[in-house]
Amino acid sequence: MTGGRTRARYQLAIEALVSTTPRGRSAGYGLIPEHQRICDLCVEVKSLAEIAALMRMPLGVARVMVGDMAETGLIAVHQPSTAEGKPDLALLERVLLGLRNL
Amino acid sequence: MDFGTSSPAPLAAGPTTSVKIVVAGGFGVGKTTFVGAVSEINPLTTEAVMTAASDGIDDLSKVPDKTTTTVAMDFGRVSLDRELILYLFGTPGQNRFWFMWDDLTRGAIGAVVLVDTRRLADCFSAIDYFEDAGLPYIVALNCFDGMLTHDVDDVREALSIPGDVPIVTCDARSRESTKLTLIRLVEHAMSRFAALR
Q: Residue ranges per domain, chain B?
């Protein structure tokens, strides 16, 4: 499933968002079943953690798979936007506003 | 039937930004309850597989003979605006799975350390970890029966919590209470941000 690799080429955050690209949507039967299921799942945006949980696969396996699928253009990955590894002040303000409006 | 004429649905203008908050604390303190109280989905469980003896090394291919351990963590999701999703991750119950914590805390806004005042010692290691990591955190005393068995000042002293770290009381079952706890954490993270500039 992961070609023997357990480490993703680049480290995807567990909260990184994944969405299926038009190419992923139209790829259909040419894909291995796991890729097809991830393409189906991510028509609505999902995080890496959600993909792992919903696919019932270990986080590390999902990470490799999502990395592979991003490279072949089946899905798009939105890594969290952080400055020096931390959310910046503008983002924190948005989070605060969003929480207050819940 | 002609499938050729159906045009692909336009890409939904969905969320593109995500942030996360870590919910830590001892086993059975109410982390999953806390996450579930504010999450828009039933908390999901994701697993990581590790060698039992590993310490931050995650390449299983090099140590095929070691026993593996599965670590589970629960998480929830809160849509904050049309483009922004907050994920809440509960730490694995057993604090010895530190390798998971690095993954969990990297890029996080901060952490809520949930404390059962009847078992204060259970949260020592989480507080230690966040102090060392320099991650903003607040301490939330979970009031199971609407009562505190210890005074807030006593808890601060007992756990040696620095004066600038907020201690709040909360009811992990209540959406409003968990929401206020998260707001307090974000405010604390923002003040830390401002102080570091």
A: 17-196
Q: Measure B164 CA to nearest chain A CA, in Å.
A: 19
CA distance B125 to chain A (A): 22
Which residue of A61, A65, A84, A86 to mutate against B (max B Cβ within 10 Å)? A86
Q: What predicted TM-score, i.e. pTM, was given to this entire model? A: 0.86
Q: Where are the domains of chain A?
A: 17-100
- Here the tokens at position B138 are 């607040």
The question of ipTM being above 0.85 is answered as: yes
pLDDT-derived band at B7, boundaries 50, 70, 90: very low
- What CATH number is given for B17-196 in this structure? 3.40.50.300
User: CA-nearest residue of chain A to B20?
Assistant: A15
Please state, in angstroms and rounded to a whole number, the distance separating the CA atoms of residues A53 and A36: 16
CB contact at 8 A, B141 and B152: yes
Alpha helix (H) residue ranges in chain B: 31-38, 98-105, 124-133, 152-159, 175-196
Contact across the interface for B80 and A16, Cβ inside 8 Å:
no
Compute the distance between CA of residue A27 and CA of residue B47 in angstroms, rounded to an integer.
Answer: 29
Q: Are A45 and A38 in contact (CB under 8 A)?
A: no
The CA distance from B111 to the nearest CA of chain A, in Å, is 13
